[in-house]
Amino acid sequence: MPKQLISTAACSLAVLLSLWFLVSNWNNQNLQQGLQNQQDKIQVYQLSIQSQQQQLQAQQQLIDSAAQLANQVGPSVIRDLATLQLQNKNQKIATLLKKYGIETKAN
Question: Where are the domains of the chain?
Fold first, then answer.
């Protein structure tokens, strides 16, 4: 009888440990699935941020190009307009230049 009791107890312990292992494994799989979902969301956010950064860089390059063009060409155009206004005594050009705070004077 004691051998049967030990055998039954060992089998019961093995069944309990198997159930505990099964529940733990199922719980771990759920946790891993949740973690995978969070990692997928993070990856989507990172791709969105990367796309927005690329758009921002493209806009910044456009702004830099426009500023560079304005700094290179703007003063020459204004100088030429002032010269043209003085040569032709064109009141419309004088009004346009005054609108932007530039007054032409003959030397």
Answer: 2-99
